[in-house]
Amino acid sequence: xxxxxxxxxxxxxxxxxxxxxxxxxITRGLLDGARAALAECGVQPDAIDVAHVPGALELPVVTRAxxxxxxxxxxxxxxxxxxxxxxxxxxxCAETARGCSQVALETGVPVGFGVLTCxxxxxxxxxxxxxxxxxxxxxxxxxxxxxxxxxxxxPSRAGAGRKAGRQPGRAPTRPTVRGAAPRGAAx
Length: 187
Ligand code: INI
Prior knowledge:
The chain is of the alpha/beta class. The chain has one domain (15-153): Lumazine/riboflavin synthase (Rossmann fold, 3-Layer(aba) Sandwich). The chain has six helices and four strands. The protein has helices at residues 24-41, 59-68, 88-107, 121-129, 135-153, 155-163, and strands at 15-20, 48-53, 74-82, 111-118. Strands 2-1-3-4 form a four-stranded parallel β-sheet, sandwiched between helices. β1 (15-20), α1 (24-41) and β2 (48-53) form a beta-alpha-beta unit. α1 packs across α5 (135-153). The longest helix is centred in the middle third of the chain and has 20 residues, at 88-107. Bound molecules: 5-nitro-6-ribityl-amino-2,4(1H,3H)-pyrimidinedione.
């Protein structure tokens, strides 16, 4: 059995962040959290680009453009949807989440989902300003981990192993791709 895990090594990665201006006092905190998390993962400052969108509903289309550009290993989507008086909240939440998931599935580029869906502004503040709970940071770390996991699962890995004379089904002695090594492999 092989077991794969993505590491949090962001050193070789390029990451795009799409961030919503709606509820900007909150999304600024998410952006700070995402940037701090990417820096902790070792992503180089000049390997991080930021695209500003009007509201959460614009995140999927812009996230898709970033993913399809071929310039990024991962994208992070940041926004804050806070329940108002109308049903609008429900549609914005559902479509944003569905759209961002669809982008990841369609493009194969992981999308870290850092869109808050809260009942109150106080809840949103808590999740955007407290470092330990910052959803922007959580989304950024998830994007790095998933990008590395996907890199370790690429078919070229199996081909490279076979070319090197490795028996199919046996773990390589050294990881050939950045990111996760099969459990038990030498590092
Ligand atoms: N956009 C948000 O990012 N958060 C919200 O809470 C929100 N609410 O409540 O309406 C919101 N609406 C705007 C929406 O995302 C689009 O920008 C707009 O509908 C134009 O397409």
